[in-house]
Amino acid sequence: MPIQQPSNQIKLTNVSIVRLKKGGKRFEIACYKNKVQEWRNGVEKNQDDVLQISNVFMNVSKGEVAKSSDLKKAFGTTSVNDVVKEILEKGEVQVGEKERDHDLASLRREIATLVAEKCVDPGTQRPYPVGMIEKAMAEAGVSVKAGKNAKSQVAETLRLIQSNSTLPIQRARMRVRVVVPATDGERLQEQLLALAEKVEKEEKGETWETVMLIEPSRIRAINELLQKESKGKGRVETLTFAATADSS
Question: What number is the average pLDDT over the span 25-51?
Answer without folding.
Answer: 89
